Amino acid sequence: xxxxxxxxxxxxxxxxxxxxxxxxxxxxxxxxxxxxxxxxxxxxxxxxxxxxxxxxxxxxxxxxxxxxxxxxxxxxxxxxxxxxxxxxxxxxxxxxxxxxxxxxxxxxxxxxxxxxxxxxxxxxxxxxxxxxxxxxxxxxxxxxxxxxxxxxxxxxxxxxxxxxxxxxxxxxxxxxxxxxxxxxxxxxxxxxxxxxxxxxxxxxxxxxxxxxxxxxxxxxx
Length: 221
Prior knowledge:
Elements: E1 2-8, E2 12-20, E3 27-34, E4 42-45, E5 52-53, E6 58-66, E7 71-81, E8 88-98, H1 100-109, H2 131-136, E9 153-155, E10 158-164, E11 173-179, E12 188-189, E13 198-204, E14 212-218
Parallel strand pairs: 1-8
Antiparallel strand pairs: 2-6, 3-5, 3-7, 4-6, 7-8, 9-10, 10-13, 11-12, 11-14
């Protein structure tokens, strides 16, 4: 098997495949292709590959991994040649594309999995803000960030929470709800009326003596 390691989803990485002729006669390379799963994530480049490989010589070709989808990517590379015993050689290719939050965990906690210090619901710095919120709002998970979350404010007859969708934060769902009582089952969704990279949740206060708003951040992984 050939491993591509881990990289951010949407970025590319290549591995060089070497074919060596250990026989006493020329070896004919007749092609290489992806025959397994995830064919759109792997590509073969044989533009510099020798068709006829002299005895004792070698040639190379490249295999590229580019996955826009996070997760483990696995496929089969099939190499064809004139080798009398191994005219068809299948090689397993594997790699992992990291989502933006996995990359964030790797940077801050040296582990991209949703476990331990970097787990979504862990509060590493004990500031009352779990890692998922630190990521979603661009905060430092190793330093007290209390008071740095978006603060709703009254604008005219509305209670409004507005904040930007930060560059590099993807795969996260933002939402808001309101309630008069804080009781379970009493929460009503508030539509996101923001445009472009801005999220805006606005609630009409009306004649209510009090009401409550809460922001929601969801990691659908």
